[in-house]
Specification:
The chain has 327 residues and is an alpha/beta fold. Helix content is 27%, strand content 12%. It is built from 9 helices and 8 strands. Strands 7-6-5-4-3-2-1-8 form an 8-stranded parallel sheet. α1 packs across α2, α3 runs parallel beside α5 and α8 crosses α9. The two termini are 20 Å apart.
């Protein structure tokens, strides 16, 4: 399945890509489509407009981190072509020639041989992978795919997520997600992995269901100011930091923002206006407000996604670096 999400509920931020069998009932930018089990989560992208070519410059590279929280910044990546087919290993390698300055790369699933391909594309760099088990109905299978791709070297893995915005989407109960976290943790530990295992959901879902944080090794939260509709791009940092503080205080756990950003094209959501200028302003604002543990959404525009009015036709246009080199 593929990562998909950038939606929010109750005026909350959306989520990202991930291969899921069920569509999400909330708007949010979604990550890559996969041939095996794509899941359209939330959000949309502007229709009919051409994606920008160059956007924000990536942050300056810093030293490598061990696992979990403590990194400066990361970016999400989806291995899908505009027709929803899988990118080849060569295409993935080409995309990563332009990705630098991040300590963490977030993937949403295991289809398209993405774990092995991204490991190969980032070999020799300081980047670690925030991997994902997308379909919680196939935890054991996806854990085995990850283990096989890693080949016993877990040192390049920052964390592993189980599900993306499942509670926010209304497709899965908190109890089911928590059970999947335990199943994944056991399967991964048997393969030699001892790092963090979490579920990722929106800030609203995490506040409404703090047990998701409790069951995770840290709170992994997708938080998009754009979907709130009452926040301008230049105030994105204050918005995201406010949610980080609220969730941290409520749960007593470290919070990692696993998706945040701003669309460069799409329809206006009240005072939230998609544009390349606002995209840059939002990223700058977030960088100023949060000095670490932030994963931006996403590396490139996700042309495999479908734009929808419910997500302000912006689903495709969240790329930090515009269109992918392999597009």
């Amino acid at each position: 399945g593929k990562p998909v999400s950038t939606t929010t509920r109750n005026g909350q931020p959306p989520s990202t890509p991930a291969p899921l069998p069920n569509p999400a009932p909330v708007p949010a930018p979604a990550p890559a489509p996969a041939p095996a089990s794509p899941v359209d989560q939330q959000n949309g992208s502007p229709q009919g407009s051409a994606p920008p070519t160059q956007q924000n410059n990536p942050p300056a590279a810093e030293g490598s981190v061990s696992t979990g929280p403590g990194f400066k910044s990361g970016v999400s990546y989806s291995p899908y072509n505009g027709d929803n087919s899988c990118k080849s290993a060569d295409q993935v390698a080409k995309d990563f020639t332009k990705i630098s300055g991040y300590q963490v790369i977030r993937l949403y699933g295991t289809d398209c041989n993405q774990v092995a391909n991204v490991l190969a594309a980032t070999e020799g760099s300081n980047m670690k992978l925030f991997l994902g088990i997308f379909n919680i109905a196939e935890v054991q299978k996806e854990a085995e795919i990850i283990s096989s791709a890693v080949r016993g070297d877990w040192s390049r893995v920052n964390a592993i997520s189980v599900g993306n915005e499942l509670v926010n989407q209304g497709t899965t109960s908190p109890g089911t997600v928590i059970g999947a976290i335990g199943q994944a943790r056991g399967a991964l530990q048997r393969s030699g992995y001892s790092g963090p295992v979490v579920t990722v959901d929106t800030m609203v879902a995490m506040v409404d269901h703090p047990e998701l944080c409790t069951a995770s090794d840290f709170c992994a939260v997708n938080c998009h100011a754009f979907f709130d509709g009452k926040v301008t791009a230049d105030k994105s940092g204050d918005f995201v930091k406010g949610w980080v503080d609220k969730i941290s205080e409520a749960t007593g756990k470290t919070v990692v923002i696993t998706e945040t950003g701003w669309p460069s094209q799409g329809d206006t959501n009240d005072v939230a206006v998609p544009s390349l200028e606002n995209h840059k302003a939002a990223i700058s604002s977030i960088e100023e407000a949060l000095s670490n543990d932030v994963i931006y959404f996403s590396a490139y525009n996700d042309m495999w996604k479908k734009n929808r009015p419910g997500t302000f036709n912006a689903e495709q246009f969240w790329g930090i670096m515009g269109d992918a080199p392999s597009a």
